[in-house]
């Protein structure tokens, strides 16, 4: 039995998994998917666990708890791209970065691509990343597709590690924006087009680099634009 299968069927630290997959049921409006990482028995897509992420207590507003990643080899891989087909969106998450490596890529949505012979795949994707500066961090939101390639990273907008934060990236049809705790970090006009079906990784980039050190409680994917006053409203705790 290989390392990955052993850990999945072992269901380490209270994680529930069977036959290499866990099932999560996202609850919310019809155009919204919610993943709560302290309740891996309720996500409605095939899921594989790598490493040994631990279930921990989350912010008080999210009683299902959270999942702690060690920054070395802990990760989840989910066979779903929850924002596939969306022409506008709000992509939210509640997480607690705990410092560590400078560059950490912790939530990645990747479209499957089948380019024609001789053509290079675009690498269509969404990313939540952070850059760590000692005991502070800056959000790096990124989106890429055939007609757009945009990073929203502002190292002068720093936030403390070791606390729960709400982050979001949105698109209203013309402008791509990034937020931390409801406060705008930056924005850019992009020519966004909907992404295709695909998959996701949590706790690392999809190619298993830049692992995350910290905990993630929730990710929320809405296939329409939301204003900051319509976010989940979770603030540092």
Description:
With 237 residues, the chain is mainly beta. It has a single domain, classed as Jelly Rolls. 3% of the residues lie in helices and 43% in strands. It has 1 helix and 16 strands. It has one helix spanning 3-10, and strands at residues 32-36, 47-50, 54-56, 66-70, 75-78, 89-97, 103-111, 125-133, 136-145, 148-153, 159-160, 165-171, 175-180, 183-189, 198-202, 213-222. Strands 1, 3, 4, 6, 12, 13, 14 and 16 form an 8-stranded antiparallel sheet that branches. Strands 2, 5, 7, 8, 9, 10, 11 and 15 form an 8-stranded antiparallel sheet that branches. A hairpin with a 2-residue loop joins strand 9 and strand 10 (148-153). The longest helix has 8 residues, at 3-10. The chain starts with a helix and ends in a 15-residue tail after the last strand. Mean pLDDT is 88; it is low at 1-14 and 16-26.
Brief account:
This protein is mainly β and 237 residues long. The chain has one helix and 16 strands. Strand 13 and strand 14 form a beta hairpin.
Layout of strands and helices, then pairs:
Elements: H1 3-10, E1 32-36, E2 47-50, E3 54-56, E4 66-70, E5 75-78, E6 89-97, E7 103-111, E8 125-133, E9 136-145, E10 148-153, E11 159-160, E12 165-171, E13 175-180, E14 183-189, E15 198-202, E16 213-222
Total number of beta strands: 16
What is the helix fraction of residues, given as a range? under 10%
Supply the helix-strand structural class.
Answer: mainly beta
Q: What is the third-level CATH name, the topology?
A: Jelly Rolls
Low-confidence stretches: 1-14, 16-26
Identify the quaternary structure here: single chain
Number of domains: 1
Beta-strand content: 35-45%
Distance linking N and C termini: 41 Å
What is the general shape?
Answer: globular
Radius of gyration: 17 Å
- Total helix count? 1
- The pLDDT mean sits at 88
Question: How would you sum up the major sheet?
Answer: 8 strands, antiparallel
In the CATH hierarchy, the architecture is: Sandwich
CATH class wording: Mainly Beta
- What order do the helices and strands follow? HEEEEEEEEEEEEEEEE
């Amino acid at each position: 039995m290989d390392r990955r299968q052993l850990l999945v069927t072992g269901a380490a630290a209270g994680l529930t998994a069977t036959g290499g997959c866990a099932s999560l049921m996202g609850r919310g409006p019809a155009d919204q998917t919610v993943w709560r990482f302290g309740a891996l028995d309720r996500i409605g897509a095939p899921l594989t666990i790598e490493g040994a992420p631990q279930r921990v207590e989350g912010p008080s507003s999210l009683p299902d708890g959270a999942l702690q990643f060690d920054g070395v080899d802990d990760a989840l891989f989910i066979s779903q791209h929850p924002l596939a087909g969306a022409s506008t969106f709000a992509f939210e998450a509640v997480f607690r970065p705990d410092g560590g490596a400078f560059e950490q890529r912790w939530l990645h949505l990747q479209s499957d691509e089948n380019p024609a012979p001789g053509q290079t795949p675009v690498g269509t994707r969404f990313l939540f990343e952070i850059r760590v500066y000692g005991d502070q961090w800056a959000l790096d939101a990124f989106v890429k597709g055939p007609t757009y390639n945009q990073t929203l990273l502002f190292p002068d907008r720093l936030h403390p590690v070791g606390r729960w934060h709400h982050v979001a990236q949105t698109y209203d049809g013309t402008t791509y924006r990034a937020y931390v705790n409801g406060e705008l970090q930056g924005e850019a006009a992009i020519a966004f087009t909907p992404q295709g079906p695909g998959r996701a990784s949590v706790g690392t980039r999809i190619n298993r680099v830049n692992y995350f050190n910290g905990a993630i409680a929730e990710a929320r994917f809405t296939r329409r634009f939301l204003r900051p006053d319509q976010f989940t409203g979770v603030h540092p705790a």
